[in-house]
Structure formats: C-alpha cells, structure tokens
Amino acid sequence: MACDADIMIIGGGLSGTMLAVQLLRQAGRRTILIIEPRAELGRGEAYSAVELGHTLNGNAARMSVDPDNPDDLTQWLTEHIAAGGWPESAEQNVPISELFPPRGLFGVYVQQRLAEARRVGAQQGSTVEHICAEVLDLQTDADAVLLSLSDGQSLRGACAVLATGMFPAARTAQKHSSGLNAAALDPWNVAAMRQLDPQASVLIIGSGLTMVDAVVSLEQAGHRGPIEVFSRHGLLPHARRQPPAWPDFLGDDKSIRTPRQLLRELRRHCRAAIAQGVDWQAPLDTVRVHIARLWSQATDVQRRQFVRHVRPWWESHHHRSPPLSAALVERLHGEGRLRIQAASFKGLEPNSKDGISIRIRRRGESETCVVQGAALINSSGIEYDWRRVARPLPQQLLARGLIQPGPLALGIAAAVDGAVLDADGRASSRVFAMGPPLRGMWWESTAVTDVALQAKALALRLVG
Ligand SMILES: Cc1cc2nc3c(=O)[nH]c(=O)nc-3n(C[C@H](O)[C@H](O)[C@H](O)COP(=O)(O)OP(=O)(O)OC[C@H]3O[C@@H](n4cnc5c(N)ncnc54)[C@H](O)[C@@H]3O)c2cc1C
C-alpha cells in the first residue's frame, strides 16, 4: 500500500515546525505532513500568546531557532523592526540583540522561517502540508506507521515523529486537579480578567514563569487588588540579566557527576564571581550546555535526589524571568499587593458562596487551612508523566506497548537519536520523539535552544 508521506510529524508547535524547516533544508525530495489541531503552525501554547507583555524569558541573542546562526532571531528582528514592526520595542532602549520579544511575535518569526524553508524545499519537490486534526491513535506494521485522526481520516507514512509538546497538569486527571481547570482563570486570558472587580483578591497556585505571566495579565487587565501566590517552596524566579562570560568549569572538569558535586562546585564559582564583582548568573549560565550529559549519565537515585532537593532551586535560578515582568512582580511584592507563601495546594473547597476557596497546607505545618479569594489562577505547571495524561494518543501508545515511560516517568524513553523505546526496550525504526516528551532523557528538553538543536539532529537522522 502506498504511503501518504515520508515523514508524519504529530504536533505543529515549535518542535514540529522546526523539524519540518530542517527537513526542507536537506537535499532530496520528501513529503512531510504535520498533523496539528491548531489553526496555525509554529505557535503551540507558548507562541500563541497575544499580549505584548508575555515575552520570551531570554533576549533575542539567546533565542535563535537556527543552531548554525545564533544571530538568526536578532537579524530577523532587525529587519522586522526596520519595516515598522513591533514599534513598542523602542521603549526598551537597548540593542536589538538584548530585546525580549513578545512570544506572539516569536511565533511569526518561526512561521516566516517555515515559509522560507518551504520555498527552498519546493525547488527539489519537497512539500509540507498541515492537516488540522488531532492524532488519536498510532499503529505500526512491517512497512509503515498508520495514524487515525480526529476527523476520521487515516494516514500512512514511512515514519512518524511525536512532537506533542507539554501537557498542562490541570488538563489531566490528576488527584487534586479535578474541577480545578473549570474553576480557574486562564493565566494568559486578559479579557477574562477584565471581568473581575479590580479590587478583588486573586489566588495563584504555582510561582514559576506562568505565575509571572499571570501577574502581567492581571496588571494589563487593570487589576489592582491583592494577589496571593502559593507554591511548595515559596520561591520566585530571579530576573534575567545579561552576565558576562565565565570559564566553562564543567567542560574542564569531567569528574563532576553527582547533583551534590555539581551544586558544591557551582556555589564555589558563584561565590568567586561575586567576590570579583561579577554577576552570579555568569557561572550558572555555563552549566546549561552540560545538563543533558550530566542527567543522562546520572543514576535514577541521583536523578531523584536532583528532583527532590535541587529542582526548586534550579527552576527559580535557571528559568529566570524577563526583566520587565520581574520588575512588575518585584514592585507588587514591595507594595505588599503580592504575597508569596510556601504552601501546597490540597484541593478546591466545595460550595464556596463568594468567589473560590482552596485548601492549602503551609510549609512546616501539619494542619491544612482554607483560603478564600474572588478568583483563582492555576499556574502549577506541566504533567510529564504520560500515564496520567488523559489524551487518546499517549494512552493508546502506552496500551499498545509502542512506548514506555522515560526515566522517573518523565515523558517517554528514547534512544540517543530520538527513536522511541517500546515496552520491551527495543528502539523503533519508524517512531521518533523530540522536545518535551524527552524530558526524562535530557531533563532540559523544552526551551527554544533545546528544540532547535534536536530538530536539526533528528532531521539529519531521518534523511540519513
Ligand atoms: C507559556 C509558555 C511560555 C514559554 N516561554 C518560553 C521562553 O520564553 N523561552 C523558551 O526557551 N522556552 C519557552 N517555553 C518552552 C518552549 O519553547 C515550548 O514549550 C515549545 O513550544 C515546545 O515546542 P513543542 O512544539 O514541543 O510543544 P508545543 O508548543 O506544546 O506544541 C505541541 C503541539 O502538539 C500538538 N499536539 C499534541 N498532541 C497532539 C496530537 N495527538 N495530535 C496532533 N497534535 C498534537 C498541540 O496541539 C501543540 O500545538 C515556553 C512554554 C510555554 C508553555
């Protein structure tokens, strides 16, 4: 039976789109299908943002989608701004490479790179078609991969790539989240926040970068009331600065292997930096390129230690906030309007007459208590455990034994080249994965730079 495509990409967010771009740039003719339920490719959740205040958390010089050209985004922005785009960028009064672009604009950049790659690919007969549907099931036979789609279509292709991104925790059947999604406001929906009484008290669960976005949304919506933030450790993301280069101490010293050794060495370098008047963010930023190696060579015990003891610290220090958003959070905190509490969310309280009530347990206390607010925002993150993701495709893949959970049940297991491992640990010759589903393999497998590198490597693997 003939195939509909050489490569079927499941998910057309940043990962799927960048993979298509890289495939189109390779010599040879191929038919690529991207199956994505959203109307536009290249955006996913992150780059569908419409508010200018919802920006990238890194400056343009750090966010190129082209691993061969770190200045790619800066160059695109330079042309875009010169042509009259993003006039508000002038207010930041910094060089273009230091701008923190709105995520919606970043989506336009990705789409433009896809359009250019399509033209290059077309010269050799390569095509990319967007099929607007969800993939519900995937099966393999001796020669092909078969997909069943939500619109009733079936597709047959020589191989398939899972580029399905991240699944928000609140949309899964997690213990404490039942009803939470229905009760909570979308962190990015400014229009919905405009319906709130501006003086209303708002509760936010989670204190990471989604919380920062939610605070930006509230401010944009004219909210001026109190904001109570609850998170297990009560840590806020640090503001991103532009530190100078620092010696790559992990590259020079391969003996550092355990989380404890890493932290000890990192602290030592941070202290040395501060003593020399250098930003502590400088040594921290050298660690990034080594994370995949350190994580993949660690034992499960060491990985668990990292997740339990280092992760909250890593999240708040490494996943830093764009400066304008950080300044807003700091101002509200200083004014006493935003309070952060170390407390875990225990569930929604039923029958709350006015607004919403949640049950929390403050850190160090054994009893739970109830907190009331007029509205609730859930920014508590991502469900990486595919066994708990209530979507048809992850459930079907697991049930068919075509995939297995990754280390610590974070995402799915795969070989170094992205080939997924089945329930018996055999690497598939036809089904691959990239981006957030590989969280358990590499720990950091989500950011723009991770995705850009993986897209190039996987494209070379698939055409090779
Ligand atoms: C709000 C937010 C802000 C972020 N900000 C930054 C940042 O500032 N800097 C940074 O480096 N990184 C950031 N990230 C992380 C990163 O860039 C994104 O997660 C990135 O979008 C990953 O791309 P992706 O395509 O793998 O996933 P996604 O963008 O999530 O796209 C996956 C796509 O797959 C589709 N899909 C899922 N299941 C199926 C199915 N069964 N069939 C068909 N389609 C399916 C979904 O509809 C979705 O569009 C952010 C992430 C989020 C969520």
Brief characterization of the structure:
This protein is an alpha/beta fold and 464 residues long. Helix content is 34%, strand content 19%. Helix 1 (14-25) packs parallel to helix 3, helix 1 (14-25) crosses helix 15 and helix 6 packs across helix 12.
Account of the 3D structure:
Strands 1, 2, 3, 4, 5, 6, 15 and 16 form an eight-stranded mixed β-sheet that branches. The protein has a six-stranded mixed β-sheet with strand order 12-11-10-9-8-13. The chain has helices at 14-25, 72-82, 103-122, 180-183, 190-194, 209-220, 249-252, 259-275, 281-287, 291-297, 300-318, 323-334, 392-399, 439-442, 448-463, and strands spanning 5-10, 31-35, 127-131, 135-140, 145-149, 154-162, 167-168, 202-205, 227-231, 338-348, 356-362, 369-373, 375-378, 382-383, 419-421, 427-433. The chain has three domains: 5-54 and 102-166 and 384-463, FAD/NAD(P)-binding domain (3-Layer(bba) Sandwich), CATH 3.50.50.60; 170-238 and 320-383, FAD/NAD(P)-binding domain, CATH 3.50.50.60; 249-318, no CATH class. With 464 residues, it is α/β, with parallel strands linked by helices. The model is unreliable at 171-177 (pLDDT under 50). Flavin-adenine dinucleotide (FAD) binds next to helix 1 and helix 15. Flavin-adenine dinucleotide (FAD) binds at residues 10-16, 35-38, 44-46, 56-58, 134-135, 163-166, 393, 435-436, 446-448, 451.
